[in-house]
Amino acid sequence: MNAVFPRFLKSIYRKEPLISVLITMGVVDALIGGFDDSWSLFAFGLGTAGVTLAYKWWRTQQRQPLPEEPVVQHYLPSRSSSSALPMLSVSKKKPPYQ
């Protein structure tokens, strides 16, 4: 769990940094307001986190579904367009480095 949770958080922050920052701000404000009995800060934090989560949910609903059939990409051609290179032979008269 300890190794999975930081990776999960990093991946979420990388995918949507603005939404993640707003959610973090809202949660921190709500925690500070709850512990200090500042109900306006608590309500502001809950409102910020709630609106941000609602916006993120709305954006995920607006996304178009991915195509069912995956696209196959060929990075190399099936056959080489150039002719095969000749085989190199090593001269046995003298070693190259001594």
What does this structure look like?
Helices cover about 55% and strands about 0% of the residues. It is mainly alpha-helical. Helix 1 (about 5-15) packs across helix 2 (about 15-35) and helix 2 (about 15-35) packs antiparallel against helix 3. It is elongated.
Structural class of the secondary elements?
A: mainly alpha
Shape: elongated
Order of helices and strands: HHH
Task: Tell me what portion of residues adopts beta-strand conformation.
Answer: under 5%
Fraction of residues in helix: 55-70%
Chain oligomer state = single chain
Instruction: Give unreliable regions as ranges.
Output: none
Mean pLDDT: 81
Count of DSSP H/I helices:
3
Indicate the radius of gyration in whole angstroms: 29 Å
- Report how far apart the termini are: 57 Å
Strands, total number: 0
Strand count, sense and closure of the main sheet? none
Quick tags:
98 residues; mainly alpha; 3 helices; 0% strand; elongated
Topology, pairings included?
Layout: H1 4-15, H2 17-35, H3 39-62
Task: Please summarize what this structure is.
The chain has helices spanning 4-15, 17-35, 39-62. By secondary structure, it is mostly helical.
